[in-house]
Amino acid sequence: MREARTASKGHSASEEPCIDHEQTGQKTDSESFKRLIAQNQRDTARILDKLRPALKGVAKELSKEVSKGAVLGLGSGSTLAVLLEELVPLVLAKSGSIQGVPTSTQIEMVASRNGIKLVPFSGSVDIDIDGADQVDDRLNLIKGGGGALLREKVVMGAAKKVAVVASENKFASRLCERGVKVPIEVLPMARESAKVKISMLGGLPEERLLPKGYPYFTENGNVILDTMFEPLDDPQKTEARLRGIPGVAEVGIFTFKPITVYCLLEDGGFDVVESRD
Question: Phi then psi for 118, rounded to 5 degrees?
Answer without folding.
Answer: -80, 130
